[in-house]
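A favour, since you know our structure tokens better than I do. Just paste the record in under my message, thanks.
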Amino acid sequence: MPTETPQIFHGDGRASENPADFLKSFNRAMRQQAVTLLSDKLEAYGDYLGTSSQAETWFKALSSTDKTTWAAFVAAFEKRWPPVIIAEKTKAEYERELLEHILSSTEVGKKTTMYDRECWTHVAWAAKTLQLATSAGIEQSTSMIWQVRSKLPDVVKDLLKDEEYKTWTEFTKAVTELKGNRLAEKQEQKTKQAQELTTLRADLARVQARTTPQNPIAALQNQFNKMSISATAPSNIPSTNSAFTRVPMAFNRQSQQPTYSRQQVTAQQPFVITEEAKSAVRQLINVLPHHPDTATGQMAYTTQLAQWNAKWGENTRVTQDTGYPLKPGTAAIASSECFACGTHGHNGRNCPLPMDHAERLSRKESAWRAIVSRTLGAYNRAAATPISLVINNCYEEQGGWVEELVEQQGKVDGSA
């Protein structure tokens, strides 16, 4: 046990000393040194007073009556320097402090010091939270647990069990038992995703700022290019507003497939397929990755379109040299997919979607899919996830993927 050494006492109200603490320190020192006689303790007491200080002046002027016993001396001391009465916090103040005691996301997965020991920040937060709940007198209830839990960082809430905690002890114990390394890993992943999303938004903003608005004549020209003249479709073809969606085929669904008319479109002269052409097409596929149908994927796809238009121009024809972004949620390229809607089970010649349907693939994407299939073949067919087209909650007949010649679908789409 270390030897107690009382600090010099002045008694003038300076912030560095507390009269009650000085008296306690002096008593500990006397016990350690086995000083029990009153005369010896009083003589030693004078040695711990500042020279010519208020405390020394008071001690020298002390009457003999106040020095008859140690209890009488302590009473005279406390009369001269009364103990400070601490202002106790109310229950409402502890509850407010409990709500303001927040673990920020920047602190998650890091370490701090508590009781002179290194620990994880969420452990220190839980210890202080339980202290505040105990001081507020609510530690054995559910009061305010949901409010405090709602303010925790997302990575902490994700790892906590989805259950109701009956007491603050149970709740803070659950937080304390979370693995610090796991929290650090989750927080790092979340930070990285946020940075990637910020980068995507910045890239999209820069591309949109550089893109020159299309003039009215060019816009009309573009609309005319997308128009086609064809015979009236049979009555059993879905209307433009028919509801449909693309879904992965978990299993085959059997239904009667309706018959639709085929529209003739002028085919383009095929380009010469060489090893150099194949290599260039493969490189473009890697440069324009196919994104998933998620919020992040849609944003990345929008950025791709803006970058393509800025580089090649909105009215530029798609070739094996330009490539084109693929719509999220559609079938993998070169997987025997329909070039018109981007699903499996039929080809462009028999696509159920009308030519003017808003959800048909753009002419540019159809052209790019045809070019890739003609150049490289259906090399993705075995590995691709089958995507089915659902119209008005009815699945197409999916007895198997339709075998088709690549050049036939290219002619139907007329996109290459």
Notes: Residues 229-241, 251-266, 397-416 have pLDDT under 50 and may be disordered. The first strand starts at residue 111 and ends at 114. The two ends are 90 Å apart (CA to CA).
